[in-house]
Design goal:
Helix content is about 80%, strand content about 0%. By secondary structure, the chain is mainly α. Helix 4 packs antiparallel against helix 5.
């Protein structure tokens, strides 16, 4: 189970969420620490399973799944981070133009 989860984890998505949404330096360091722990976990899985790939004997299945999944899921993650960033920015404004007020309503729905 751990190997399957680790094999599907994408560092770039996590990093993008940090870049887009996290302003606090301590929280940014936490994100880096979590990604470093993921690297250590991957290495441990490889060591324990004595495999060259975290997907183990299911490498072909994992690659096929990624080829099908990534073109759809990756853009959704990028869009989600951007929308969250915009929503936070709009919520921080004290007075909104009519256009900003409309965007806020759209983002909140």
């Amino acid at each position: 189970l751990i190997a399957m989860i680790v094999s599907k984890t994408d560092f770039s998505i996590s990093k993008n969420y940090d870049t887009q949404l996290v302003k606090d330096e301590e929280l940014l360091r936490l994100g880096d620490e979590v990604r470093n722990k993921l690297v250590q976990t991957r290495q441990a899985v490889l060591q324990v399973t004595q495999s060259k790939d975290v997907a183990g004997v299911h490498v072909a299945l994992q690659r096929a799944s990624s080829l099908i999944r990534h073109p759809y899921v990756d853009p959704l993650n990028v869009i989600q981070a951007e929308l969250l960033k915009r929503l936070r920015a709009v919520n921080e404004l004290e007075s909104l133009t009519a256009e900003e007020e409309e965007e806020k309503l759209v983002l909140q729905d």
